[in-house]
Fold this protein.
Amino acid sequence: PKKVIASDYEYYGRLLAKTGNDSLAIENLNTALAMDSTEIELYGDLGQSYYKKKKYKEAAAAYASKLKKGKQTSADFFLLGKAYYYDSAYYKADTAFIKVTELSPNSHLGFMWRGRANSNIDSTEAKNMAKPFYEKTVELATDTVKYKKDLIEAYQFLGFNAVQNDDDANAKMYFEKLLLY
């Protein structure tokens, strides 16, 4: 026991995570972090293992710890936002996706996920909160083959939103674009 060090738990935890043993991976990664909390990347590994187990609240906490202690990247905010989103913490998700759009303004992903979060916040679409984010998604997702699924989602939302707002011309335009897919 005297010869066991934090990196032993770290490597074993990562190995377990790669083989799909996320419960044991979580246990070992937490032990490694308890022994050495300076290994900031472990928080990301821990978050990923929690995410796979659909423990989104714990995954969000792990990603938030990583962001708090280390370099803040767009990818880390994206993972944090997704964990919040699937935990139904839509306001927190939106806040994380705001950072994604700030750090990666030319990527459509932050805007699309902001659209999803705001669609849940304003579920009746009374305030049209999600509309500008889906419009930005359409603007930025220029590769229609690569981003086909994302564009279908955006056009569906925009088309139904136009119908709700009695905007027949835009509804027709969005649904016609949707038919191209």
Summary: The chain is about 75% helix and 0% strand. The mean pLDDT is 95.
